[in-house]
Amino acid sequence: MDIEQNEVVRQLHARDPQALGEVREFRGEVTIVVPRERLRRTAEFLCGERALGYTLLSDLSSIDRFPVEPRFEVNYHLVSMSRKERLRLKVRLSGSDPVVETVTPVWPGANWPEREVFDLFGIRFEGHPDLRRIVLPADWEGHPLRKDYPVEGPR
Amino acid sequence: MGTTVNTVTGRSQTMVLNMGPQHPSTHGVLRIVLELDGETVIKAVPEIGYLHTGIEKSCESKTYSQAITLTDRLDYLAPLSNNLCYCLAVEKLLGLEVPKRAQYIRVLLTELTRIGSHLVWLGTHAIDLGAMSMFLYCFREREEILKILEFVSGQRMMTSYFRIGGLALEPPTGWLEQVQKFVDMMPARIQEYEDLLTGNRIWHARTKGVGVIDAETCIAMGVTGPTLRSTGVAYDVRRFFPYSSYEEFEFDVPTRTEADCYARYLLRVEEMGQSLRIIQQAMEKIPPEGPIRTEAPGIVPPQREKMKTEMEALIYHFKIFTEGFAPPPGEVYQAIESPRGELGFYVASDGSPKPMRVKVRAPSFINLQALPNLVEGRLIADVVTCIGTIDIVLGEVDR
Q1: Lowest mean pLDDT: which of A114-123, B36-45, B226-235, B260-269?
Q2: For the whole model, what pTM was predicted?
Q3: Could you tell me the CATH number of the domain that includes residue B65?
């Protein structure tokens, strides 16, 4: 996608060109793939910049593309109430090192969604204030939403 | 377990109290670990997961059409909202346009569901606070809504009436008369609820100034729906990101600024009135005849008549129900305004007939996160009010 087309992408590019790993548009939804180490800065910029105003983290979720590497993707669905726009940030993580920095200091509401992703995918969020399982019992083994986890449960 | 705190009379020991998971006012199986100093809540930690059924994982082993029946079971008080959101997401993935007639019928039924959901909320919230009769009145009216849903779809609650590309079947003759009867009856009934509660001194004492939260905290925590609107932020997905032709309807997004449980009560009551407005407009808009499903060979089941005369239609029908259909690889996020706030479905396809990932952005899950903000520093009796006021459905919290 052309960077000049979208105002948010343009501003992000002007501020930190390396934050834009890849920009895609599919069915009218803009996705920005951010390198892992740039995520926190990008999040702070999108949330803090008054003209952008992505103050609402609507959803945080993950997807497992096993056996493709990097297998994990973490998606951040943002809403800007002032611009009436949505944006998806995406971070790709490898299966051998599924760690990403937490965004709870930027959006405190990321707390439970990050715990859920940790619980069901086994992705760790560095700096999370309370990273423990949320929907499964604390002594559960494995991460059910991974593709190599059978639907009928462990045998 | 407890810690020592400073009180006005000196230092004292706190007590840890386990509320739930089996507690009538937790509206399901919610457990809250409360740390108390006397009757004051110092810390509240919600523990969830008792109703986790792995719906998102199950979706990955179903075809796109089969997964609709699972969505009913998320927010079981507003099943049609879930159906709608999931169908819209898959339709977006496929790039399908749904006929206007089906869109209006969807709007009408989803708004009916909203009223039904708010009625359950009002009834149970009132019974939590000791107003028994409200519960009976609210369920009396909700029964009328369920009767309409049964008449139209054949099911009272788990309707699965919205399908990818349109509706499951043509609504029966005379259904709009039933809706009209309900719309005519309802304003007087809403007035009855208001007569019982709005000026009630006990109701005021239990809800006014209780569970106050500010707009910044709400947005930071991702809280949406009536709780966010009670802080003065008019965020309603129907207005901000219209779907299913909502931009053609006239309705207000009520807001208040007190941000307490009483304000949220007033808001939900007003929302019921706004839903009636939308239903009335939808009834006028719905054309008496026209397609209820879009034409998309291989994706949307063909009409019954065509299957009897056309070979292709028969083959498509067989293939859709045995193999399903394969959307192009990609990912979409679709949000709607459910009775509880922003409901979102993230659906990702890898080009196979089964979704690669279905993620539900459940408003109850996110809103429940803010419960400690509402109750900490208040009395234990207010915990019940605060759980009620954020209107959670555990089926959707735990998924």
Answers
A1: B36-45
A2: 0.91
A3: 1.10.645.10
